[in-house]
Write a structure and sequence with these properties.
Blueprint (H helix, E strand, L loop, with lengths): L18 H4 L15 E5 L3 E2 L5 E8 L2 E7 L4 E6 L5 E7 L7 E8 L2 E10 L2 E10 L4 E11 L4 E8 L5 E8 L3 E8 L4 E9 L5 H4 E6 L5 E7 L10 E8 L4 E8 L4 E10 L4 E9 L5 E2 L1 E8 L2 E11 L2 H8 L8 E2 L1 E8 L5 E12 L13 H4 L2 E13 L5 E7 L3 E4 L9 E4 L4 E6 L7 E7 L5 E8 L13 E4 L2 E8 L2 E9 L1
Antiparallel strand pairs: 1-36, 2-36, 3-4, 4-5, 5-6, 7-8, 8-9, 9-10, 11-12, 12-13, 13-14, 15-16, 16-17, 17-18, 19-20, 20-22, 21-24, 22-23, 25-26, 26-27, 27-28, 27-29, 30-31, 31-32, 32-33, 34-35, 35-36
Amino acid sequence: MFDRKKIIGIANSRVNTSRNLILGISCLLMLGNTVFAQEIFVSESRNIRNDDAYAIIGKIDEHILLFIDRADKYELQAYDNEMQAVWTKDITLDSRRAKILDISQSGDNFTIIYKHSKRGKILTQAAKFDGKGELVKKDTAHIQANRGFYSLEDQSISEDERFVLIYEFEFNTRIYATVYDLQNMETTWHKVFSTKDIDIERDFVQGIVDNTGTPYFIFSKNNRRTKREENCFYIISYDAETEQAVEINVPINGQIWFDVQFKYDNLNERMVGAGLFLDKRYTEATGYFYLNFDPKQPNTQQTHFQDFDPKFVVRAIGKETKHRSVGEVSVQDLILTQDGGVLMIAERNRFYSRTGSTIGNIYAANQAQASRMDYHFEDILLLAIHPDGKLHWNDVLQKRQFSQDDGARFSSYFLMHTPRSLRFVYNDEIRYKTNVNEYLVGTTGNQQRNSIYNTEAHDVSFILREAKQIAANEAIIASERRNNLKLARLVYE
């Protein structure tokens, strides 16, 4: 979603790379005492207003492109490799009040998916531009009545970034879904799905689209102790050949899950899920679980639950304990391996309201809430899981981040995939004049921690969790400080 005063989240953990990068866990080299050099190029600052929004598009024709949604216009800014401003161009969409859903780069073009209203109708449209900001093609993906009573709306993009799934829920009874082909600039299909025996707002887990344009809407059913024997994941998919909705029930052996993420493994053609389960307390995880299945043959399901090792719990919570559980933890990402296994990445985080009110999400929903919140983002938990669900290795990457009244925008980490390692890049402290550190993680969990940069050098405050990787050794990072926006290009040699 394109939120005001935020970077578009489309680049966070979504890298337009081949599987040998995004699945590099299975072919990482041992780190040993290797030292990696890096350079950082920082642009001049540009003033932004509180109601401006922006997105890092990527690199096209040797130019790094930034899209800015200003109050009175859309703007495309280009930078060279040393982050010097080259040119600025106004971008024209069908409406100045359009709602930007997604911006996706593919080769020498980028496509903006957006919605706007016209004569009582809501139009979902796609506009493709070249690297100079010239319109290549525009298409209408879907037209619908302006009903205005959707309880949830979002979008998901396929691993190869060809298909985008756009969906919204109506009154907990229907799913309106469109799959759009970004390569051919045409609608693959639009359907309305009815749901039964579920509460969409309460039970919805995730929406996914695979590289064939097949969608998967994942819900949770009976994830509570009184009905634990009936606990399962309920999935609605769609078969384009038969033009029929497909319902899949995935039982989870009477366990209660704590947090979960799913990804479709396009290489092995299986749905993969990994998460945390609990025993007694709903706020504490006692172990991890893993499952995978072929959506066309659900009876091929493999499921494995495993308690945390006591030594892992001690490292995760930072003290000796009799309990074998970890609280205040959430699943951040899954990285698929070529053999069907997965690296599950979780992070310990907690937040407190100084007004005594309760906020239901780790990120503040609006600026008023953000101005009254304390945020703690701590250790990163890694669990490498074999295709049969058994543990390969686990480890804890230690960090301590605390901030107030900022929506946690400068906290957490940026994950960079390279052929030789995974890099977890993060701000050591959430303050002006801090070090930017990294953990390099290898195939057996061996790690190396480095301090790579001090923000005082260029007067920056990096929003690392929204950085975008543009090559195997390059990433673009936004900095905001006192309503001044800068872009930085991080290059590893």
